[in-house]
Amino acid sequence: MKGRVAISVIGILLAVCSCRNNPGKTGEFTLVNADSLDAPTNPGAESVEETYRNLSSPLEIANLFQVMGVPFSPAYLASSVDANKQTTSFQKALYLGILGADLGYLNMYEKTGTAIELVSSIKKLADGLNVGQYFDFETIKRVSLNKSNIDSLLFLSVDSYSRMDEYLRKNNRSQLSAIMVVGVWLEAQYFSTQVIRQYPNNLLRERIGEQKYFLDDLIRIITPYCDYDREFTAMCGFLRDIASRYENVKMTYSKGEPSSSEKDGMLVVTQTETSMVEMTDEQLARIIQITGIIRNKLIPN
User: Fold this and answer.
1) How do strand 273-278 and strand 250-255 relate by DSSP bridges?
2) Please, are residues 144 and 152 in contact by the beta-carbon 8 Å criterion?
3) If you average pLDDT over residues 250-265, what whole number do you get?
């Protein structure tokens, strides 16, 4: 449901989310470097922040998998991505998002040792975007190897991604921040659609259905960049293809009575709402299919 996660921008990749009741081969053409182009007029900052806050974290999704009793599967990971072979800023930002989602999935299942190689790839991609100074590689690596404190590892990951994102947006490179978010969302969506094929679950089905409205917002955020070059144009087309499969999915919201509680001597009023997703098995199957096709087009091999 919209508005239930309040975490800053890319930090949402890996953060421990606030509680819910409810997470092509672009090398086929020769491309100009989108990072070298003048950025178009950005969407309103407040609107962008609202979209980012509504993104379901991969950790939230992975937590739901665990509640469902779904075992860890390395098959869901983008393990074939080679950070050394990404040449454009678009590719580096996209895979930075995708691998960030993978890192969140690994951390949630406490596969910290397995995450070391992934962390190295993330650092290379961040260096390629000139934001590597904000990714605390050595500390994250040390904590991962020691398997000492999963909470510390999550915090360090959140902080690193948040700093990278802030730098990009403050230096007129917000198109790359947007692509990172696309990568996060697409990978989390891929996790969800792959899992529900094997482990049908009404709550996970609802989470997938809820992406209809977040996807609309995500398309709005990336639209100003659709004419940057072929990579951005292709991504815009991919997102619209997924959105077309959601066209007849319906969602209804109803507000409940607000609840109040005392916290630190202050009265805190919490608004409550419920949602209902109307999505047929056929619609879900089409969403699963298109998500897999597009995600795998973007992952080498």
Assistant:
1) antiparallel
2) no
3) 72
